[in-house]
Amino acid sequence: LNTADMDAETTTNTEPMAEEEEPLFSNLDLFLFSLIVGLVIYWFMSLSIICFPFCNQGKNIIVFYGSQTGTAEEFANRLSKDAQRYGMKGMAADPEEYDMGEMARLSEIENSLAIFCMATYGEGDPTDNAQDMYDWLQENDDEDLSGLNYTVFALGNKTYEHYNAMGKYVDKRLEELGAKRIFDLGLGDDDGNLEEDFISWREQFWPAVCEHFGVEALGDDSSIRQYELKEHTDINMNKVYSGEIGRLKSFEVQKPPFDSKNPFLAPVTLNRKLNKGGDRHLMHLELDITGSKIRYESGDHVAVFPTNDSALVNKLGQILGVDLDVVISLNNLDEESNKKHPFPCPTTYRTALTHYLDITHPPRTNVLYELAQYASDPKDQENMRKMASSSPEGKALYQSWVLEASRNILAILEDMPSLKPPVDHLCELLPRLQARYYSIASSSKVHPNSIHICAVVVEYQTKTGRTNKGVATNWLKNKLVTDNGHKSTVPMYIRKSQFRLPFKATNPVIMVGPGTGIAPFMGFIQERGWLKEQGKEVGETVMYFGCRHKNEDYIYQEELEEAEKNQVLTQLNVAFSRDQEQKVYVQHILKKNKENIWKLIHSENAHIYVCGDARNMAKDVQTALYEIAEELGSMTRTQATDYIKKLMTKGRYSQDVWS
Hints:
alpha/beta; Rossmann fold; Elongation Factor Tu (Ef-tu), domain 3; CATH 1.20.990.10; 4 domains; 6-stranded antiparallel beta sheet; 22 helices; globular; NADPH-hemoprotein reductase activity; transmembrane helix; FAD; oxidoreductase; FMN binding
């Protein structure tokens, strides 16, 4: 602002003022100065709240979680709640919301401890919310954390190449920066029994903490409520959440940018069944993102927020004997906590059980433990507490009665008629319903305003004779283009991935994707075709697809054969596993074409992509490649393994797999 010009304007019309001494600052200057000072003070105050709330709130145990699907967050909440049983004050914390540079300040608090519950995502990557923390740990070599006490529990899955990479990294890196590990790194394996791994670790962890700090358990094993119920009898319904993830009314007034806290409601423009026969339902959906400013690339994931089946929700209401349309809030008893409610409040029980809570997964042991008090039959109480214990008998009972029988909370309530928990306590204990991720089956070069999903509907019989249905796939199956004259919409956002076509279009690509693992390759094929149309030179594009029967579930057959005819696909290899006596899978045809595969990889710099089942297929494909390298590269098995692993580190072997 030019103050001289402003003063000139204010003095030209009034002669007498010329005699007066000009003020150094005009009113506008003073106003702007006050505003800036106010903003600076506000910024520092908010920063101090964000940076070290544990200092202000008398907390001495902070449990950071790196969570993609909610499990690590759940474990963090359980550990922070445990702290109360040892006379300590704990809090669960999302590292995304804190300045990690302030972590060293924890040492100023007596008996302080930082616990890290860290999940690994994708190819050994941090979860979205732990990315900033990971970057901070990597970049700050001169950070001194010598006064910090810490421990790490890692969540992973042994079927993946980079098992628990993030937890192992955090554990090692904190030690390098001078922090003191007070209990061994815990390794949780979701391919085995993650809950059991966590309980076993936790059973030994707390006694070690007590010994380290010289404190004793209070001997109080009773249930500790975190939230209190408030029923709203007279409330304006415009202030009540009806399924929004973040901002109230965000589904009515949509504002970009769209992300996990602000999903976009994408209209469904196509929903078709892909398979011609068989007892499964494979489907292709197209979501319209016109006007959303959403950008995506081939290989990215689309996250969708599903809702629970209304029949399940109604049954829960009936068995608990509650009016699901009562408007409630669950308010945190710890007023200083950042987490005011377990899910958006105020809302109704119906909305909470439909949109916000996971009612279909078998409940974890802590839920059974806390609900046991509400069983009127002492035998039921005893069994529920036993399943939550670390005794071999209790673990075996939980494994068989809950996990192997796939009993969700409704099945447990039905099979234990004496169990009648208050619905508000049940809502406090159930985990949040999470977004589901799908590999995008389209290219933005060809479909800039549309995102394609390819999925198989999950439905199976349990050992108790019930039919369990996958939440997201059954919800997507019922997303018809128009539903009673209304457009069907799907709340979604994009998650960026490392699964990318080579930067140089001339590099050959080998794609291995049986079943719905073909999804990202539909995008890759579209993109390579588009590049060819642009007159670019495109390397060999080789597809290995597999399904059960040619006449039943050969999905995208027309598109694939058309791409082969147009020479976008230079090779199309399909394994029909059950069309002959001997089962034939993708790894078998890879081995059959070993000379071509080896030439592309070893001499022509090909990039390999594998998508689909991690437990069997991805491992078998990797083994087949070891064998090809061994035989045609004249290597020992150790050399062949190193050769393939090097391709991974160079970004020439990428996997998008799930178990």
